[in-house]
Amino acid sequence: MTWAGTLLHIHVAPSASVEMEELAEARLIPGRGIEGDRYLLGTGTYSQKPDIREVTLIEMEVLEALAQGEPKIPGLKAVVDPADHRRNLTTRGVPLGHLVGRRFRVGETVLRGGRMNFPCPYLEELLGVPGLYEGLLNRSGLNCAIEAGGVIRRGDPILPLAD
User: Fold this and answer.
1) Domain CATH code at residue 150
2) pLDDT digits (tens, 9 = 90+) for 7-36
3) Which pLDDT value is given to residue 152?
4) Which of 35, 83, 90, 155 has the fewest CB atoms within 10 Å, counting from its CB?
C-alpha cells in the first residue's frame, strides 16, 4: 500500500446517545478503547455485541461526498459534521475499505482493521436527515482493535504497516 493519511478529528462520548466531545488528543488503551469513550466504559449501544469496536474511523471524503449529494439519492444532500457521525476518528487520505484485517499506525499507536461498520438507522433519526442511512451504506467507517496504545493527536499521520 502506498498511501499516507491524516487524523483530522478525535471524538468520544461517555455513553450511548450522548453528544460527542472533540478532543485535541486521546489515549488509546490496547484491548479496551479510547480513554473516556463509551466502548471502553462498556456504555455504548453495541458494547455487549461480540465485535471489535475499540476505535471507529470514518473518512472525511465520505462526509464531503454526502454534502455534495453523492451518491445520487433523491433529495439527499446531507451536511454531517465530524462531531455528528458517531465515529471516534475522522481521517483524510486513508482508504478504510483496504484496511480490513490490516495493521496501520495512527501517531504512536497501532490499530488493526476489523470489519467495515454498518450505518445506524438511529443516526438518520438523530440528525433528522432522511436518506442518510442509505447514503452511508458501504462507507460508514471501520471498526478497529488497538494493538499498541499511546496518545494520538489531531494532525497525526496515518500510515500502513507491513503485516
Assistant:
1) 2.40.33.20
2) 999 999 987 778 899 999 999 999 999 999
3) 98
4) 155
The amino acid that residue 149 corresponds to is G
41-88 tens-digit pLDDT: 776 665 566 567 899 999 999 999 888 887 676 667 788 888 888 899
- Cα–Cα nearest to 139, from 40, 61, 46, 53: 61
The 3-state secondary structure of the chain, one letter per residue: CCCCEEEEEEEECCCCCCCCEEECEEEEECCCEECCCHHHHCCCCCCCCCCCCCEEEEEHHHHHHHHCCCCCCCCCCCCCCCCCCCCCEEEECCCHHHHECCEEEECCEEEEEEEECCCCHHHHHHHCCCCHHHHCCCCCCEEEEEEECEEEECCCEEEECCC
Mark residue 125 as left, alpha or beta (left: phi above 0; alpha: psi -120 to 50; beta: remaining). alpha
pLDDT tens for each residue of 138-150:
889 999 999 999 9
Pairing of the two strands 55-59 and 142-148: antiparallel
Domain ranges, residue 146:
5-160
